[in-house]
Amino acid sequence: MRSALPRTLLALAIAASLAASSAHAASGQPAYPARPVRFVVPFTAGSATDIMARVITARLAERWGQPVVVENRPSAGGIVAGRIVAEATPDGHTLMAIGSAFAGSAALYSKLPYDPVKDFAGITQTATTPLVLVVSPALGVKSVAELVALAKHKPGQVNFATTGLGSGPHYATELFKLVAGIEAVHVPYRGSPEALTDTISGRVQFFMSPILAAMPLIKGGRVQALGVTTRERAPSLPEVPTIAEAGVPGYEYQGWYGLLAPGKTPRAIIGWLAREVHGVLELAEVRERIATQGAAAKVSTPEAFDRLIHEEIATRRKVWRAAGVKVE
Hints:
alpha/beta; six-stranded mixed sheet; 11 helices; 11 strands; 18% strand; globular
């Protein structure tokens, strides 16, 4: 007679599997991740968005027991990365780490290979940060007021770097030009490291840099910080005035970072991802690391992050129009 033991073991295995599935369903936690997770970053390694992504992914990999791979796809102001994620299988295994450049590009480009609202689902905001206006020490400009005076004395002869057309630094600088009443020539780069390198060399005169990327160079004396873009001074650079108090009253800009998934990703996975990232950002050592880079950890619900993006797209569209910035 054939032993009944294998059948008994099979029944037990099925029962255990069903129990585990029920537990997942009861807790609201999907059976995820089932394989390595890819974080697509639309800028180069060492850029502010890349730094933020790597702070988070290292901890997520520990929590999940799965590799979390950062994939840098810098091109066209984040549009290439956006298309990759928009077209990815919406199962939570391909995500996108973004900065406020995402809203800037969406507001600037009338024709994109994706719908910036419908083709993405917000997971959570991860941080806020000022930008910092930096120049090469060799330029001889010691303040925001002196830079404005230089640009007015040489209209159209002063160049500024950005991390690409429609990026956060581009938007912040066009807003700065409008409020200060100056002219300057846009020189786009693929990311913060390249823009900072040419600011140091003097190929461009100034750069509204993500503070995360500029901090080591400021501390090392390789670039000079003239002002931060936010309403209040940055805790990490308390000696640096705001741009508003340094000569351009009324100027204010705050950058932000966050995470997106493809638009049709199940809401159970979106919610679980948000809770996981929130857990990482609650860790004291993670918050401290972000703070030492000049940013502040900040989380949101998926719905609130979606609203932020929609509102920012509308606001940036108005500024692009006022500044006369358009895609040729």
